[in-house]
Structure formats: structure tokens, C-alpha cells
Automatic annotation (TrEMBL):
EC assignment: 1.15.1.1
Source species of the chain: Astyanax mexicanus (Blind cave fish)
GO CC aspect terms: sarcoplasm
Family statement drawn from the similarity comment of this UniProt entry: Belongs to the globin family.
Limits of the Globin domain: 16-165
Keywords: Cytoplasm, Heme, Iron, Metal-binding, Muscle protein, Oxidoreductase, Oxygen transport, Transport
GO biological process, one term: regulation of response to oxidative stress
Domain of life the protein comes from: Eukaryota
One matching Pfam family: Globin
Entry's localization field: Cytoplasm, Sarcoplasm
Name the record gives this protein: superoxide dismutase
PROSITE patterns: GLOBIN
A molecular function (GO) term: superoxide dismutase activity
Length: 177
């Protein structure tokens, strides 16, 4: 997977979400989105702590070493809110495959073309999102919810990979490899 900037030759399309899973995702998201600022910051802080190389794409705070300083960064908070807003759009439209694909296409193209973000960081981010949501909202994210959210994150990752493939992403696109 790493040999070509995180791209796999052929990624199998994930199983689509059932109506029940869509409802679970929307119901669990309500509590998360009420706490979107804190949840978004927690997601990015976990990403940067667990995968420090992910900070390289953020010129505003890539050299910030102090976790408390990073956590209070206005730029980090703004990006965290953008991440949560994009997730909110996905959740609100989880039953509309075309809308979710369109949203993810915009996000993926921007990250690939404008920011040269390797696609593997999306996979890392989807895992971090799940970890943080389960830890921060244990009463909301039981086994059933975790399963539904895992499927959603697989769909997100697959859609992003499709966009990277469409634009012809190769490891040569990446300035970090």
C-alpha cells in the first residue's frame, strides 16, 4: 500500500449502508455535533499525536511541538471545525450517495491537488475519527453504532481513493516521499 503513496491498485467497493445503519449514524451524530468544536480538536490532536507526519501539511502549526499550544491554535480549531462540518454534511446526506460522493470529491481533490496530501492520511484520519468518537461518547457508540460508523468510514475512504485515482495520483505527486 505504501509503495505508491498509499494507493492500492484496485480497492473493492465497500458494502453500502443499510437504512438502519444510516439511521444509527444520524442518531449518534446528534450528540457529537453538539460538541463539534471539542470533538474536532480531539480528532486532529489524536491524528497529530499518533501520526506526527500528518502535521507536515499544515504550514500554520507544523512546527508547533507543545500539545497545549497546538490545541489552542486558532488555525487548528478552524480546520477542526471544517472537518466536523464536512462530516456533518456527509451524515445529513448519508442516504444520498450522489451528494456524499460530490462532497468527498471536493474534499479529496482539494487535499490532493492544492495540498499534496497523500491518500494514506485519509485512511489514518478515518481510523482516528472512529477511535475518538468511541472514547469521547462511549454511551452513544456501542457495538452497533461502531459497526455502522466503520462502514461509513470505509465508504469515505473508498470514495476518496476513487477521486485520487481519477486525478492520476502517483507517489510522484507527493513532495514528502
Amino acid at each position: 500500500m505504501e509503495g505508491n503513496g498509499g494507493m492500492q491498485e484496485q480497492m473493492e467497493r465497500p458494502e453500502m449502508l443499510t437504512g438502519g445503519e444510516q439511521a444509527i449514524i444520524q442518531n449518534t451524530w446528534t450528540k457529537v455535533y453538539q460538541n463539534k468544536d471539542a470533538a474536532g480538536v480531539a480528532v486532529l490532536m489524536r491524528l497529530f499525536t499518533s501520526f506526527p507526519s500528518s502535521k507536515q501539511f499544515f504550514s500554520q502549526f507544523r512546527d508547533t511541538e507543545d500539545p497545549e499550544e497546538l490545541k489552542s491554535s486558532v488555525q487548528l480549531k478552524k480546520h477542526a471545525l471544517r472537518v466536523m462540518s464536512a462530516l456533518n454534511t456527509l451524515v445529513e446526506n448519508v442516504n444520498d450517495e450522489e451528494k456524499t460522493a460530490a462532497v468527498l470529491k471536493v474534499v479529496a481533490k482539494s487535499h490532493a491537488i492544492k495540498h499534496s496530501v497523500e491518500p494514506r492520511y485519509f485512511k489514518l484520519l478515518t481510523g482516528v475519527i472512529l477511535e475518538v468518537l468511541v472514547e469521547a461518547f462511549p454511551e452513544t457508540f456501542g457495538v452497533e453504532a461502531q459497526g455502522a460508523w466503520s462502514k461509513l468510514m470505509e465508504v469515505v475512504h473508498w470514495q476518496v481513493m476513487q477521486v485520487y485515482s481519477e486525478i492520476g495520483w502517483t507517489s510522484a505527486n507527493s513532495a514528502t516521499e
